[in-house]
Automatic annotation (TrEMBL):
GO terms for molecular function: 3-oxoacyl-[acyl-carrier-protein] synthase activity; fatty acid synthase activity. This is Type I polyketide synthase. Residues 15-439 form the Ketosynthase family 3 (KS3) domain. The keyword tRNA processing does not apply. SUPFAM superfamilies: FabD/lysophospholipase-like, Probable ACP-binding domain of malonyl-CoA ACP transacylase, Thiolase-like. It comes from Glycomyces artemisiae. InterPro entries: Ac_transferase_dom_sf (IPR001227), Acyl_transferase_dom (IPR014043), Acyl_Trfase/lysoPLipase (IPR016035), Ketoacyl_synth_AS (IPR018201), Ketoacyl_synth_C (IPR014031), Ketoacyl_synth_N (IPR014030), Malonyl_transacylase_ACP-bd (IPR016036), PKS_assoc (IPR032821). Pfam families: Acyl_transf_1, KAsynt_C_assoc, ketoacyl-synt, Ketoacyl-synt_C. One of its GO terms (cellular component) is cytoplasm. Keywords: Phosphopantetheine, Phosphoprotein, Transferase. One of its GO terms (biological process) is fatty acid biosynthetic process.
Length: 721
């Protein structure tokens, strides 16, 4: 299966599409997206049955644990109480007061931005934050412990209440777009996705982070109540004949969203596209306040497909809300069957997914988790089985239904069309959300020589840099990258090196390795020793030479080794193409072809522009990597580059001046220069004697004389005699 689709049909308005450029998450039984996805493909049930001693140690009372109605099962999140507080500049006391959900959301939002290729500490896009989380059991435990004074209670409220979730992330990461919390019970995080999409389309932000968490504290089992929604057996079995209720799970997830056109222009490789969203409420069209409504669910699916501009005949997959309850599943199945059949879906056309069968119900985070799973389905073209499914619930209508429940996973081949899917999430209280996603288009590959050189040859050595706030975090990051490298065969090593160098924060503890293969790099990362950058950075001065230092192919070493160089060079050449038609293409050849005629590159109108473009692109790229100069020193043509780099001249103005200077110098009569080891007063005597000018005083005892070639030749003969 291909991860991206080459579109031929462009009738739909793609200006309304939203790209998912980054994602991150931690789930029961899986510390990251990739291991979780592999577990889903295997149909694994990732919930845990806890022992009595474990439950007692976690704080559950013996009376509750020994009750015949106690179910010691849930989706457990490992290390939910761990937090890298130093990364965010948070004191140990403040971290201890914070709800673990909010700690995890901070870390996961950071990871999602990094996955999108953004340095969270240097984010320049106007980025919004849309957050959701379950009610804070951690806060309730603190308030009922009677260990806080009045001031401590106020601090605890600010560290735990949902009002502060999104704004805390915005503050700690320096994000300046809208920051708000969405709370609609189980549908909260998918509603947050809808709000983020609307904000992007309305121009309220250029990028959005949607983040959600559901973590009880402590993580325990539940007491089954007859007629209640929680499972008596400890299994969540959506749409199955043996389904007996929901099961709680813990986890955290985040996605990064951008308008598709902006993401494509920036060269992003999206996980998929969001092409339609809708939110509504059941109103009074249901049996009771907590009951689901087929009418409301049908309406929200219909609205989302209308927003996407497609019919149900275009769908191949539906990630259902699917809690495994006796009431909820039949209503959802009936509503989805009815509306999808009405909108053109054929019998058995749409495979149904239910991630709650794997990890339990992640409450406020469940919608976002379902979205991430669905994006992976459309990206990879693989539909996981519904974990534990055996026999369809007889209460579900099957005659003519477009829905089918896969007991085994399968490859999804959509033929010439992109893969499209729906995601449903329904909240107690009646707020429903539905999102329609689509397989992302294939990236358009550049064919210019610059891009070829940037990718590097297979035998090129690559530099991978890693940094973290603590030694342990650095070790974990290095090991994660080492484990990921062999699995990422479709990602060029040059792209990996660039992302680590430019799309990650530069933190105090650092390590770097070089290698020519994934295996070599992974081995060196596993063996890497961290070092800490203490004290102020040493001062660096950039020296920018003048004409005479150019040579054919001079841009190649920078393009091969310096991330960001080629994009900056392209900017220079684009300006040049507008100034002098035809020159940019010729200059590109001169900069990358070592066999380009050296005599032609010595022509001043080409040499000066070549030097300026390479110097400007290299210096700017180094600055973006954190190697910022304390001073700039330019010689001759290099003075123009220094002026542009320091902001005295804009890039367009500097190129215009350099181009005009090169052309004017090329039009001058042929002359010559001579460097003489004399003081300035003696140089002026020689100039007067031979009809020359003092062109430069380089040092107290080194001057340059210039003038007609014949006069310079006579000067040389006279000095030698």
């Amino acid at each position: 299966m291909t991860d991206a689709y080459a579109y031929e049909d462009e009738e739909r308005d793609r200006s309304l599409d939203i790209a998912v450029t980054g994602m991150a998450g931690r789930f029961p039984g899986a510390a990251g997206i990739e291991p979780w996805w592999q577990a889903l493909l295997r149909g694994e049930i990732l919930t845990t049955r806890m022992g009595r001693d474990e439950l007692l140690a976690a704080g559950e009372s013996p009376r509750v644990v020994d009750s015949p109605d106690y179910v010691p099962v849930r989706g457990l999140l490992d290390d939910a109480d761990r937090f890298d507080h130093e990364l965010f500049g948070i004191s140990p006391r403040e971290a201890a007061l914070m709800d673990p959900q909010q700690r995890l959301m901070l870390e996961t939002a950071w990871q999602a931005l990094e996955d999108a290729g953004c340095d969270p500490t240097q984010e320049q896009l106007v980025t919004g934050v849309y957050a959701s989380a379950s009610s804070s059991a951690y806060l309730r435990a603190m308030l009922t412990s009677n260990t806080l004074d009045a001031a401590g209670v106020e601090e605890a409220l600010r560290a735990n209440e949902p009002d502060y979730m999104a704004t805390r992330i915005a503050y700690r990461l320096g994000l300046t777009g809208p920051a708000l919390t969405a709370l609609t019970a189980c549908s909260s995080s998918l509603v947050a996705v809808h709000l983020a999409v609307q904000a992007l389309l309305n121009g309220e932000c250029e990028q959005a982070v949607v983040v959600a968490a559901a973590v009880d504290f402590p993580q325990l089992g539940h007491v089954h109540l007859p007629g209640g929604i929680l499972s008596a057996s400890g299994s969540c079995r959506p749409f199955d004949a043996d389904a007996d209720g929901a099961l709680a799970g813990s986890g955290v997830a985040a996605v990064v969203l951008r308008r598709y056109e902006d993401a494509a222009e920036a060269g992003c490789d999206p996980y998929g596209l969001i092409i339609g969203t809708a939110v509504n409420n059941d109103g009074r069209a249901k049996a009771g306040y907590q009951a689901p409504s087929a009418t409301g669910q049908e309406a929200v699916v219909r609205s989302a497909l209308a927003a996407a501009g497609i019919g149900a005949d275009a769908l191949g997959y539906l990630e259902a809300h699917a809690t495994g309850t006796r009431v909820g599943d039949p209503i959802e199945w009936s509503a989805a069957s009815s509306v999808l059949r009405e909108l053109g879906a054929a019998p058995g056309q749409i495979a149904v997914g239910a991630v709650k069968a794997n990890i339990g119900h992640l409450d406020a985070a469940s919608g976002l988790v379902s979205l991430i799973k669905t994006l992976l389905v459309v990206r990879h073209g693989q539909v996981p089985p519904v974990a534990g499914f055996r026999t369809l619930n007889p209460l579900l209508e099957t005659a003519g239904s477009p829905l089918r429940v896969p007991a085994a996973g399968f490859d999804w081949d959509a033929g010439d069309a992109p893969r499209r899917a729906g995601v449903s999430s329904f909240g107690i209280g009646g707020t429903n959300a539905h999102v329609v996603v689509e397989q992302a288009p294939a990236l358009v590959q550049e064919t210019a020589p610059v891009r070829d050189f940037e990718a590097g040859a297979p035998d090129d050595e690559h530099l991978l840099v890693v940094s973290a706030a603590t030694p342990d975090a650095l070790r974990d990051s290095a090991l994660r990258i080492a484990a990921w490298l062999p699995c990422a065969q479709s990602t060029a090593l040059g792209d990996t090196a660039r992302t680590l160098a430019t799309g990650r924060a530069t933190l105090p503890y650092r390590t770097a390795v070089t290698g020519r293969s994934r295996t070599e790099l992974a081995e060196r990362l596993r063996d890497a020793t961290p070092s800490r950058a203490d004290g102020p950075a040493p001062h660096v001065v950039f020296l920018l030479p003048g004409q005479g230092s150019q040579y054919p192919g001079m841009a190649r070493p920078f393009a091969d080794a310096l991330p960001g160089f080629t994009d900056l060079l392209d900017d220079c050449l684009a300006h040049l193409a507008r100034l002098v038609p035809g020159m940019a293409a010729r200059l590109r050849t001169a900069l990358f072809d070592p066999d380009f005629p050296a005599a032609e590159l010595e022509r001043t109108e080409l040499a000066q522009v070549a030097l300026f473009c390479v110097e400007y692109a290299a210096a700017t790229a180094l600055g973006r990597l954190g190697l910022a100069p304390a001073a700039l020193a330019g010689h001759s043509l290099g003075e123009f580059t220094a002026a542009a780099l320091s902001g005295v001249l804009g890039l367009a103005d500097a190129l215009a001046l350099v181009t005009a200077r090169g052309r004017a110098m090329g039009d001058c009569p042929t002359g010559a220069m001579a460097a003489v080891a004399v003081r300035e007063d003696r140089a002026r005597e020689l100039a007067a004697a031979y009809g020359l000018e003092v062109a430069a005083v380089n040092t107290p005892e080194s001057c340059v004389l210039a003038g007609p070639a014949s006069a310079v030749k006579a000067l040389g003969a006279g000095l030698e005699g």
